[in-house]
Automatic annotation (TrEMBL):
CDD domains: PKCI_related
HIT domain span: 10-128
PROSITE patterns per record: HIT_2
Coiled-coil annotated spans: none
InterPro entries documented for this protein: Histidine_triad_HIT (IPR001310), HIT-like (IPR011146), HIT-like_sf (IPR036265)
Name recorded for this polypeptide: Histidine triad nucleotide-binding protein
Species in which this protein is naturally found: Streptomyces boncukensis
Name of a matching Pfam family: HIT
Gene Ontology MF term list: catalytic activity
Length: 128
């Protein structure tokens, strides 16, 4: 059933506390922890505690939790002091990016929905 823990899923194990992670925020439905291979000074993953294979499945199966993940991505950015000032302006190192890699061809390697929150350095646009 959608949302049930998967025995072979790394992020289900992190959500259950069975694999250690550097947790920066936690709510009833989400957990945010530092990426083990950071690509920016701030690189935090926000996951639903329940198992959904990717962001589209999460949005379809548990839309309120998808909203929780997005809200928490913003809270992580604020906590890490990479959020831009109100209105979105700011210097070259303010602002952050939220990414959901979806599908192996787009770089997804862990098939439990997760938002990457990246910030603290210049972020080129369009991305490579
Ligand atoms: P994806 O490539 O699926 O979009 O993102 C998976 C992310 O999980 C990668 O950025 C990778 O560095 C991270 N990751 C993989 N294994 C671990 C782990 O055991 N702990 C943590 N904290 N991050 C992990
Ligand atoms: Zn999982």
């Amino acid at each position: 059933m959608a949302g049930e823990p998967q025995a072979d899923c790394l992020f289900c194990k992190i959500a259950a506390g069975e694999v250690p992670a550097t947790v920066v925020r936690e709510t009833d439905t989400t957990i945010a922890f530092r990426d083990i291979n950071p690509q920016a000074p701030t690189h935090v993953l926000v996951i639903p505690k329940a198992h959904h294979p990717d962001a589209a499945a999460l949005a379809a199966e548990a839309p309120q939790v998808a909203a929780d993940v997005l809200r928490e991505a913003g809270e992580v950015a604020a906590q890490e002091e990479v959020a831009p000032p109100p209105g979105g302006a700011g210097g070259p190192r303010t602002g952050y990016r939220v990414i959901f890699n979806t599908g192996a061809g787009a770089g997804q390697t862990v098939f439990h929905a997760h938002a990457h929150v990246l910030g603290g350095r210049g972020l080129e646009w369009p991305p490579g």
